[in-house]
Amino acid sequence: MVSDLHYWSRLKNNRAGLAGLIIVVSFFLLAVGVWAGLLGQGWSAAGGERWAPPGAEAWFGTNLLGQDIFQRSVFSVRTAFEIGLIVSILSTALGAALGAIAGWYGKSWVDGTVLWLAGVLDSIPFYLFVAAVAFALQGKPWAMQIAMIATFWTATGRLVRAEVMKLKTREFVLSARAIGLPDLLILSRHVLPNTLHILLIQISITFVAAIKTEVILSFLGLGVQDGVSWGLMLAESTQEVLAGHFNNFLAASIMLFALLMGFNLFSDALQDAFDPKQAAL
Amino acid sequence: MTCWGKLNPVILSDNKPLYKFLTIAALVVGAACDSTSPTQETGDRGYSIYRHSMDGAPSSLDPAQASNIYANFLAVNLYDTLYRYKYLARPYQLEPNLADGLPQVSSDGLIYTIRIKPGVHFIDDPAFPAAKGRALRAEDFVYSIKRQFDPKTRAQGAWLWQNRIVGLDEWKENGSDYSLEVPGLKALDERTLQIQLISPFPQLTHTLAQGYSAIVPREAVDHYGQEFAIHPVGSGPYRLQMFNSAGAVLVRNTGFRQEPFNLEAEGFDPGVHGGFELEALEGLTVPFTDRIEVEFIAEDASRWNSFLAGELDFIKVPVTQFDQVLESREPLSLHPALAEKYHLLANLESGFVHTDFNMDDRRIGYHPEPQQNVRNKALRCAIIKAFDWPKRNEVFYYGIGQVFPGIIPPAAPEFDEKQSMAPVQRDLEGARMLLDQHDWNPSNLPVLEYGFPSSVTERQMFEQFRSFLGDIGYPAEKVRPMTFASYGDYARAYLNRDVMLITIGWTMDYPDAENTVQLFFGPNSSPGSNSANYNNEEFDRLYRSGSSLQASPMRTTMYRNMNRIVIDDCATISGVSRKMILLWNRELRMLPDRSFVGGFFFRFVHTGDAGTNPGEPAQ
Amino acid sequence: MHYALNKLAYGGLLILGVTLVSFSLMVWFGPDQTYTLIGKNASAEQIAEVRQQLGYDQPFAMRYGRFLVDLVTLNLGASNSSGEQVYSILKKTIPVTLALMIPGFILGNLLGIALGLLATYKKDQWIDRLITGLSVTGMSISFLVVIIFLQVLMCTPYGLNLFPVRGWQVTDLASYLHYVTVPTLSLVIIALGYNTRFYRAVFVEEAGKDHIRTAKAYGASPVTILWRHVLKNSMVPIITRFMFSIPLIVISGSLLIESYFGIPGIGKVTFDAITSGDQPVLKAIVGLTAVAFILIQIATDFIYKLVDPRIA
Questions:
Q1: Interchain proximity A124–C256, CB inside 8 Å
Q2: What's the CATH code of the domain at A78?
Q3: B320 interaction partners in chain A (CB closer than 8 Å)
Q4: B11-35 tens-digit pLDDT
Q5: Is residue A280 part of a domain?
Q6: Chain C, nearest residue to B159 by Cα
Q7: How many domains does chain A have?
Q8: What confidence category does residue A7 fall into, taking pLDDT thresholds of 50, 70 and 90?
Q9: E strand or H helix that includes residue C113
Q10: Which chain C residues are closer than 8 Å to B453 by Cβ?
């Protein structure tokens, strides 16, 4: 195994990446706060004055129903993390599993099947897929996540497949096979851990993609059904901005932007750190 | 005057007076520099254009499929119906359109004889031999109604005449063969129709003012097949020039029968209609405008922006803009700067919005055990008492919607203005008492499933409903949304009795309470229009005896009693009729309507151009 | 020859797979259009009739079989919602979508390439950092936010009010520019971040190679190096990206833009068909998408061979 120290030190030196990480962790703490029932609990109370400006009662003001925009934005952090984490971790795991199998049994029918499946899923219009899954699950909360996982794994799958095909020719793998270790063991214990850098990067990239997709899906009515998310807030805001009420729009956009920016900076730093080509320089 | 370069700085604060000013400034500037305003368009040819906006798109241009209000609007302009509603008379009154007069009805109320006007032609179209439109005959009406009962048409209006006309349902059962006669639907000669009913149907004439009853030529249907839905061939005042998902263009049908406009016949009342400059229209030939451009803009934001930019002559103002546009609510008035440029009309909708309890659902509706039945009713009544109508009205309808108890909306002639508003007044005390007395508490309350098709407004209404119930101690986790990705899916669910609380709007087909009380008539339960699956013997009995009666004080009393029954049974949280704010360019002389007159008003729109009006009679 | 046949077979399998999966989704999970096509007060018989008209009552295998046959013979049928022939719907809307999306797509990529080259040239200097920073920013903004913001900024009195809010009445070049500007702007803003970053990475990698160092040692000017060596040799990844982002941008991207700006293109038609369950339209679009995807793959391979003879 290649030494990790080199990578981690490069990571630490990347200031933008660190800033990104700090942002992400802060948001994560907010999400934990909401999960723990400490923050953002008043997101659905429709008691306040309509479209109140920011004030002592409601820090970002209120929306049409008199709901507190700040509370809703904070609760949306939890929604974002729930969706982001579930989709990114599961889709990356699925991609890793299928990619590893395809790469290991490269150029065989197994490989062919996985590639074909990836090709098929990539060719289906995404919204058709999500809508269909949403209808199938009758509006249950998991429809959107399942649809996203089913389509996002392909990117990871292809990358892992390529990497595994490369690793297959490495000495330590060849020796493991020579000893007679079972394939599955080699894959899980020796090969996959060497793809960890790819997986980490993919998780962070997919997190961003998942949140962005959720925003659009919720806007179209196919996303979050109960609760609140930035996508729903933006959907509400399209009517409000016309009447000159920008608070909903600004709150959701800015928080969304901040989280995505943090993640992008961090994942950029990860890629820079783990990119073997840069190591040569 | 160039419209480009109107630079308004973007100010990102919450300064409301500033936004109001900006909106008004924009409207004023927009109206002034609008490059395609009617006055500028008229040259020596006097070609007039009216640009209308609709907040939705038609379901189809085939009258048999004119299931939404937008389709109805267009259908009645492209085709002729036997009857229509008087342009100006309020309350709405029937008026002969293609018919020569009101129907002659036999004394037993079963035989209707109608004569149609002479000299009516279909437009020229390749579907006809030599591409020449032929004269319209009484047979065409017979064909058009028969079509509704032909499965191949995929018609949606058959319910209006189902089990009403002698022999029509059998005709369908026997395979919808057009060569076979229907005894109750006959053309006595080229210009005379006779309809024979199975039992008295006082609202029959009203159904003949619906887009569904519009008269289509068989040649066109046979020629175009399924594409007939986008290739209309009618005899109405306009013909179609262009149609796509974004809009339609109607141009004057030069062969339309010449009918001079008669103010008095249309119900003109100087006291009510004085400010609209309609007097000058007396004697002019209908239709007044050469070209109507209709834009289908469902998104409020886009529609409003388009109007602000001067691209439209008419708009139904989105509720979110009421604040910016209205100076005061009582009386309803425009901001003075706008009032100079635009006319305002507050148009009460011809329907109402209500939330039904699915009485078929044992958790909230009828229960075989009498005691549980009583408890359920108490729960329903408590929920109704907890509903804050003024707040609902204020947030979603700008406070100008009309809240009323029961199921007879203000647009119906039988509406009782003096009835007690107690059923729609919030009574938290009473609600809590009911819950207590009947052993309901947060731990045994049922989970309420509130169904709605996914959209921002519907979701907000749900959240507001949840907070209303929170005020009587209903736990928030027990009020759950049941969302559907499309309206069709929602309809499927509630028509299959799967939805517990059903929020729907009903648009009346004609100004008669029979149209709304039938919503609670037992036999009409799902998949019929009785989505509440309400079943009350007394109500049904009254309905049956009232349905054959002509409008009369006695019948009105009956309907009001039926209303009382539904209210007492707490079967539905009802209701509110929305008031629409219609704005149009002051240069236009018209009285728009989005209620029963609907699309019929297009032919009376006068663009007030200074040039030669092609509608004016030759000197 | 063998290669070509192989590709064709693979393509065919892919089309089969896509159509099967999509068709299954539509049939088993898609919205039931019956309920939008029945009138008020429908009876159970009427509902059954409509279902039969729509073909819902036939067995799956038969419906799928007919679907394939229709696809091959290009018998696309008519929309269940509007009655219009699917072929004519496609004929009207595809050109609109192409006219709408192509300028933004091309501009977004060209600008991305230009900025990527610039950043590579000035690597690690402040320009590079600025460009990289901007591209990360660009990647962090939601498409939706951009569209809403631009519409308010460019098309309403709260902003500059220079362009129409919606619509597509294009008769000549002037009106085309009038309607296409704001959508193009949104597309470019959204795609630029990703494009720039991608191209920069590709160019940086290429620039680090030995033959570039050699060229520099020989005193070639920066422009020559960038143009002749870096850019030309990066054609493979550039083309890959270009080609493979076509379906993504054109089909999915056009959906939001067309809905928001009221442009009658294929994206809006697709979405309406998806939510209403208009199967004839959906079948045609899914089939076309699959075929287009295959064709793009084949075209990409072909272009590779043209550009880089090293690829076998």
A1: no
A2: 1.10.3720.10
A3: 64, 239-240, 242-243
A4: 333 344 554 555 555 555 444 443 3
A5: no
A6: C41
A7: 1
A8: low
A9: helix C86-121
A10: none
